[in-house]
Specification:
Length: 381
């Protein structure tokens, strides 16, 4: 058989592997980004109700109207952004599918796409499957800010798109207003499309604000912003998200979506719509909730030999283990899962060319007692 792999160098994602290893060894799983506590009861009840009431057939291709309307309201309330629920908002089965559809729809053969490393692992395969070429530009090593001069230097006549992610997985870094202004100028000048992965939009701490591409008119006109209900409502297993983009871009994205997944899951969409209508302020409570978890973990790790990086957003905390070991991070993460019973994520896999550094990523979307147990173990290393 002549099997020609389109992604010969791609294996199973690190998240799947580390969660499987954690299960195998009964380790505390601070690796994959999902909560280990229940989602809001009203949301779960709404899903059961809709399934029992018989809402179990195909949803509209672009998503249930009730959910698109709630998304439009939330964008207005939280970001001051107007978006047309019919022309500009598309419900997708997870942000991953939204990102894939956006990249597939907008990137052509030999187009170049700027990715900022460390970058979430789904971007590059999508670019390659679309026939494009990923051009990796590292973030500043010191604070994981964007080196805009370096980005400008990486642009060529073939540059078509830049993918940004703020708040940023895996580093927790958050783009500033001035970053968005710089991006806006650059995108206009070089006619770039922007895919903005904003799945952690509500997880920004210490009184800071999330800046969305949707809030900058010239970016709004050339961007797809991608979101995940899984992250905001603590239901990653429901695999439901949405994309916001101008009508012309949305039309192209939907052409891919309808022949990729076609639709999202009906009762899930209806349950989310009910819950958002009943609890419109729910996301406003998330920063305090997750900041308390971040602070708990940071305090518990203070006596350890790790150096903690600032974590202004997301539910991830980076630990520098340079004072403990020189071992490559992927090896160390696997070994510590087996030997110490705490699973984490190595950072090098998010880079095309990993720098000389020693970082692990911990997810603090976990019950306090799990965070404290993990910290106790880590303090003994
Ligand atoms: C940066 C980033 N983008 C996208 C996703 C995928 O979100 P979803 O589960 O909705 O596909 C994740 C999930 O961890 C993520 O961290």
């Amino acid at each position: 058989m002549n099997l020609h792999s389109k992604l010969p160098d791609v294996g199973t994602t690190i998240f799947t592997r580390m969660s499987a290893l954690a299960r195998e060894h009964g380790a505390i799983n601070l690796s994959q980004g999902f909560p280990d506590f229940p989602a809001p009861e009203g949301l779960r009840q709404a899903l059961a109700r809709h399934a029992l009431e018989g809402h179990n057939q195909y949803a509209p291709m672009i998503g249930e109207a009730a959910l698109r309307e709630q998304v439009a309201l939330q964008l207005q309330n939280f970001r001051g952004v107007a978006a047309d629920p019919t022309e500009e908002i598309t419900i997708v089965p997870g942000a991953t599918e939204g990102l894939f559809c956006a990249i597939m729809a907008l990137v052509g053969r030999d187009d170049e796409v700027i990715l900022l490393d460390p970058s979430y692992d789904s971007y590059e395969p999508a670019v390659r499957l679309a026939g494009g070429r990923a051009v990796h530009v590292p973030l500043n090593n010191r604070d994981f800010s964007v080196d805009w001069e370096r980005v400008t230097g990486a642009l060529s006549p073939r540059s078509r798109m830049i993918v940004i992610n703020s708040p940023h997985n895996p580093t927790g870094a958050v783009l500033s207003h001035s970053d968005l202004e710089t991006l806006q100028a650059l995108a206009e000048q070089h006619d770039l499309l922007v895919v903005s992965d904003e799945v952690y939009e509500h997880l920004v701490f210490d009184g800071a604000r999330h800046h969305s591409v949707l809030q900058y008119p010239a970016l709004r006109a050339r961007s797809v912003a991608v979101y995940s209900f899984g992250k905001t409502y603590g239901v990653t297993g429901w695999k439901t998200g949405y994309c916001v983009a101008p009508a012309a871009i949305t039309a192209e994205l939907r052409k891919v979506h309808q022949f990729n997944c076609f639709v999202g899951v009906t009762p899930v969409q209806l349950a989310l719509a009910d819950f958002m209508a009943a609890e419109p302020a729910y996301p406003a409570a998330l920063p305090a909730f997750y900041q308390a978890k971040r602070d708990l973990l940071q305090r518990a790790l203070a006596p350890s030999r790790f150096r903690l990086r600032p974590s202004p957003g997301t539910y991830f905390q980076l630990l520098d283990y340079g004072a403990i070991s020189d071992e490559p991070d992927h090896q160390l993460c696997e070994r510590w899962t087996r030997e110490h019973g705490v699973a984490s994520i190595p950072i090098s896999i998010f880079y095309q060319a990993p720098p000389q550094q020693h970082f692990l990523r911990l997810c603090f979307a976990k019950q306090d007692e799990q965070l404290l147990r993990a910290a106790e173990v880590l303090c003994r290393i």
